[in-house]
Amino acid sequence: MIRPDVLVTAASRRVALVRALQQAQGRLTPRGRVIATDIDPFSPAVHVADLAAAVPRSDAPDYVDALLDVCVAHDVGVLVPTIDDELGIIAQAADRFARAGVVVMAPSAATAHICRDKLRTARHLQSHGIPVADTWTPDEVRARGLPPPLFVKPRRGRGSVGAFPALTPAHLDFFLEYVEDPVVQQYLDGPEYTIDMFCDLQGRPISVVPRQRLVIRSGVSDRGRTVKSPVLMDLAVRCAEVLEFRGAVNVQCRVVDGTPIIFEINPRFSGGIQLTLAAGADFAEWTIRAGRREALRPCIGEFTDGLRMSSHEASLFLTDADAEVLAPRMRSLAGGNA
């Protein structure tokens, strides 16, 4: 029996993803709902979702218990984590969710562990001959006397927060002290791409959609265009051969002198997924169908090439009363764990 509801964690600003899942539910299971969790009752996605549930932060000891409470309280059959911090935590609890009848659309715990750590990611890909930005610890940079330009970023960061180019020795010294737990990467000078890929529960790539990031705002693609590049699609498929993905994943790279070089892999939905969806690669529907253990037909390369996205701001207007109405509902859905 299908458990029809889909739970999206840390939904925050992921309005496009929530709406795409709602549209897919309408086609597949009209009685199915999309439930969003967040710690902030004013996050827009919780007001767009069919239901919302408050849960603790992902680093709280009872986070998984709270998610399980939401799944059991409703008919959740598919769980979609959306932020890097929680992927490993949820992946490690996949068996607990499975016993509750919930399929977690997240990578294996081992893959989540590798991708959470940029140094470990680089060394894993290098060991398999996949082009990746050279990545060092600060001690290695100092010992080798590596000169700028270099790129300094948090070893376990997300959303480009705390990531800085170091163009001079003074920049490098400053950012190595300023950035918490930094790693240093090779400076890549070339156009930047996100490669969205969807893998089924067996880790088999179903779809790969590269898109060039033309304008980036707060780490998310604001303007972009799809690019049907066999080289970029093959690069993502090679990553799926050495890492165990399930569901959406995005591979980030820059093309330097004609060669794509990876600098990060995020095994979750990307922030600019709406362009990939608009290009005809329905990651939202596949998420639900894969979570229901349906067989999916690989369709790599089947999307609209050259489709451009030009994003604009949209706002919800809420009052304190909206939060007061929402908060009790969220607490009740979370089984009192708010």
Determine the structural class based on helices, strands and strand pairing. Answer: alpha/beta
Number of strands: 15
Q: Any low-confidence stretches, pLDDT <50, length ≥5?
A: 334-338
Shape descriptor reads globular
What would your notes on this structure say?
This protein is α/β, with parallel strands linked by helices. The protein is built from 13 helices and 15 strands. α1 packs across α12 and α4 (84-92) runs antiparallel to α6.
Quick overview:
The protein is an alpha/beta fold and 338 residues long.
How is the secondary structure organized here?
Blueprint lengths: L4 E4 L6 H14 L5 E5 L5 H5 L2 E4 L8 H11 L2 E5 L3 H9 L1 H6 L3 E2 L4 H8 L1 H10 L7 E2 L1 H7 L5 E5 L9 E3 L2 H10 L3 E5 L5 E8 L5 E13 L2 E7 L3 H13 L4 E10 L2 E8 L6 H6 L4 H9 L16 E3 L9 H14 L5
Parallel strand pairs: 1-2, 1-4, 2-3, 4-5
Antiparallel strand pairs: 6-9, 7-8, 7-9, 10-11, 10-13, 11-12, 12-15, 13-14
Helix pairs in contact: 1-12, 4-6
